[in-house]
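Feature request disguised as a bug report, sorry. It would help if multi-protein outputs had a clear separator. Right now it looks like this:
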Amino acid sequence: GNFLPWICFILVLICTFHQGCGMSRDERRYWRDQVKDMFYHGYNSYMDHAFPLDELRPLTCDGVNTWANNSLTLIDSLDTLLVLGNHTEFERVVNWIGKNFNFEKDVNVSVFEVNIRVLGGLLSAHLLIEEGIAKVDQYDGSLLRLSLDLGKRLLRGFETPTDIPYGTVNLKSGIPPNEIDITCTATAGTLYLEFAVLSRLTGDDSFEKAAKRAALSVWSKRSNHDLVGDHINITDGSWKGGSSGIGGSIDSFYEYLLKSAIFFNDDEWYRIFQTAYRAAETKLRIGHLYIEVDMFTNRYSSVDFNSLQAFWPGLQVLYGDITNAISVARTFFIIWKQQGFLPERMNLLTGRAGERHSSWPLRPELVESFYYLSRATPFDHQWLNYGAEIVQSIQKHCKTECGYAGIKNVEDVSKSNSMESFFLAETTKYLYLLFDDENWVDKENVIFNTEAHIFPLNPKFYEKKPSQWFSAHMCPIEASQSKTELNYYLNPKNTEVCSSFLQQKPIEAPAPLNVTNDSNEKTGEKVEEKVGEGIEEGEIEDEYDLDNFDWEKHHKTINDRIYNPTKESTDLGEERDEKETASKLDPLEGTEDVLDAQSHADKSGVDKGFEETSKKDVEEEKKERKAVVLTDEEIEEEEDELEEEARSQNEVRLTHEITLQ
């Protein structure tokens, strides 16, 4: 009895300083049901006005073919129906697809989009049936047969000198005439999960081998900073977009490195991810935000927030870096609050959405991260509160008579005539799971592909099968480990348990990974695991006042670090403290641990910021790109571009002014 007042006092303190208190189970069910209604309004509108075309146009109440010409939204919605418990509709759709689908069509499709949406959707549904999670009477394997047929058609795009596939194939004839030989990094790096599952289900290893060669080919062409660019030439392997970031055109390359490692218990993918993750965290981050840099010089190339970056905290949870995931996700939600939605791009200096990138097409990435974090920190209800605000915004600004419309411009909240299939495949799925604490998904070990299609983990897929080892898709902190919320917060070891469980410690003293390519050979360095090391006392307190965030001070911080470096210039990563990956950074404070602006300056300009690039740097960059076979004329153009870039860097420093709006 004597301890009761103290316990009550501590609980009051937790609720006072922590946003997690306040959402009851009834409230969770209310928001869950709101999302359920949202899904069915979108799904029924698609079936009434757009089916069998790919996607719904919610303003004109009709449909349009976009990525597949094959009822894309219907396939993308399959496992969401199961998440919502609608086994009857799932069975009906599976039977309809088995009888009516046909890929023998003279239509050009995106290898990336069709793989993650269509092949991923078909394989996911097949696996869920085979695992007994979904029941379809007299199921004859039709979804797997369709997957095999589609896989063979996509495989035609891999016949290139670099093993990196074309971005587009014709389902009937193969490579379209005049197809360009430039593709984005995500296309090459977001295939292995689906293709390897297809190989292991059918016994045809050509799919897995092709997808692995493609991803390793891209990785072998990384820079000395362990960064990859955004676009690459599939013929000669030269980078045509040397800007490196964690957002669009690259994002799911990182995602599939880790998810492939977990799903297949594969040490090779895990080592590559460790190297890539460390490079991203040490070279692309300022505080809790990420910029884009030139992959060769490590100088900034863009200070825009990219909405596809919002998946990153979810990936950090998978890796066990919980502390950073919490801080990054909170910062991304600040941008949501400030903008109303997450624009495709927002300049971090001005705080304004890009003129041509001001839309929000009902994207799922932010709520995806909230979902992962809600499981990693189960008593921290701030993620539920954030999710509820997002649901309110969608209902208020996106709902139409015929489904849901994306936001055309976040500044005037105008609507676009588009409801992308991922709204039903991902956004509503993650929102529903966020609020549903009794869903079957949380009782299974699964991996979500990048379209949120559910792949149940099964040891039969594992690359190596040590006894008593299994993968898990998220933090397993449950009531069995933390009986009460009070115990959870008083025992920071819980987060360490989470990290340890996620890692599974499958790798002991890994040998350096050798990846060889005809024109380029690199050895992946051995990287020490750096994961979240527990929530320290006081860390659970909310770091930011979301409604009164000081954007002017924030912009000045970023600007100072980019344009006015004060410390001796150094190549980022070489002298940075090893604890950086798990550090607790605050974007509002100019601490010495954050990404220093001088890391983007050349080594010769010690105290001069973005000084004119030295001849030595130019020569080093020429050497970096020498592996690509170019004509004399192309080499001369490259050299001119480098010298012009060097001059422009200095001009930017001298002339740039920041307008805070």
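(second protein starts here, but nothing in the output says so)
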Amino acid sequence: MMLLFGLFIIFGGVFQCQGEYYGTFIGNFQTFAHSIAGTVYAVSDDAIFIKGFVYDGTGPDAFFWTGVSPRPEPRGTLIPYPEVRDGRDAAPLKRFESEDILLKLPPGTKVRDLRWLSVWCRRFTVDFGSLLFPPNIEPPMPQTLPEFKRFAHGVRSGNVTILDEKTIYIPNLHYDGEGPDAFFWVGNGTSPNPETVPPRLPKVQDPVEPPTFSSCLEFLDGKLQVSWAPDTESVIIKLSGRIKDNQYMAFGLSGAEDRSQMINGDVTVAFHDVETQQFVAEDYFLQAKSQCDGVNGVCPDRRLGGSNDVIVLGGRRHNGITTIIYRKNIENLDSRLDRPISTTGYANMIAAIGPLNQRKEANYHGGDRTGPDEIRRINFFQRDVLGCPVPLDKDIDAISEKGEIAPEMKKLKPWDPMVLKNVDVFHVKIGPTGGDRGYTAITGNPSWGLAFYVNDYLIPELVLERGKTYTFVVETGNDQTNPAEYHPFYITDSEEGGLGQNSDAQQVAYAGVAVVDGQYVPTAAGRHCRYVVGPNSKPELYSRFEDYFKTLTLECKDGNPHYLTFTVPANAPDELYYQCYTHTSLGWKIHIVDDHSGHHQFTGHAGAERAAQHSGASSLCLSSIIFLIFVRMWC
């Protein structure tokens, strides 16, 4: 028996169209700040549809704004989203991540009369992103249906709008939630019945039983186990890994068909978000061996203009094991960023475990990854692959049944932080972060896997005196075509750095940045000198950084250092940071004092002895300009 709570009826065919249809195409947003993106269509003369709208949500007073002038300006019309009623004020826009939204224009405003649409900051009169309307727009005729007829459970709605052949917009839907088995139900005919669901729209079925994983392989010396079960159009994958809080596990298709290769890899990064208590699986494309800057690097597809094509089905955490199950389509949905899964043969796979950064994106994985000489191949349609002698998730159940607690991962003592004072010249290079004893353990911040070495110390704290001039010999990379070897040095009041990733941040740059044609440009980038790990470079083996440092080898590219001079302003705050312009969290603290004669207390060991070995460069080619830049905050 089928009970009907409410319905609306479409008389005749509303749309006869092929492929995806959203209305009359208007254009794409051009972004100026806050990552604005989206494709705009006219649904009718009274409504605008935005496909895949993106906005980072950090502007305090941003709204949809439109008008009839040639370009966006303060004189315009606010389009509330979500819609407001009863004379309430519209709320500023929140964060949107590739969401589809429908804008209802205010009374008297028509699409055919408009010249532009903007995401506009009213407080600072700034255009975050906008598009200009083409002339003579002909919006589709409205395809509006009546509201739901009301039968039970308080079902009611506003007038229903057909957006396209796959999308129905139901405004102001009300339903009390008390029905025992209620779903949206569509079909042909003049009245609902269980057999009227069109063939291309599936009937609502009972929840699907969890898949049976008959195949499993181990990666990363048993730290990660991958199980899989093929479906008709997708593969269901289960990752079980020994990962900590704020770590991820990554698994996916190699960037090369004949070997394990990170570059051009298509992987899923999965983790448990300790703040939201949600399990996350995100589609990534690996363009370069560097932190994602929004254009290049190890980036989620969504930051590169794509979409997250991975669907999380479930997850759990227990005794140090995180298990996440997700679905990935066999066919690639985006030819730029996704690789198809072979249905007939083997594919080379790659895997890694590493830390998450402040954006909850994948940081450098260190040694927990498939190496270039390690060939791991999977045929996802091959069953009964028994490559996991003791399944991690099964082992969890056995342990918990016995009432035993799995031993915690051994926590290593961080290296003592180093303090450099009474030093005038600082040599800055790039090197490894030092694993669990290094960058993250010292600073409390996640790292990318690379860090600044100053006078041969890993991220020492610097003590500078107001009014004095210092020289930084920068050899952190100047190859703008290779993000992994481009780390411009600058001095800032931001603990995170990375001004190039977010030039609208509330951040002050004190040296290493210039303004050219209204844009911030890094100036302190010299040749690339990097300390490279060797076979014995295992941080867990060395309780002192000095002993670990002896295992590293310095490799420098051809070219010259950059000499940056910095005179500490009299009004500088007591604490600054030296950081990388293009990536976050490579440097650390600068303590600003009035003079060195006072008894300033800083934790850590003084490193003046080794630093003095570098201070003999008395005649340096000084080519930088000393200045103070205030980074303007736009909403």
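Even a blank line would do. Unrelated, but nice: The first helix runs from residue 392 to 402.
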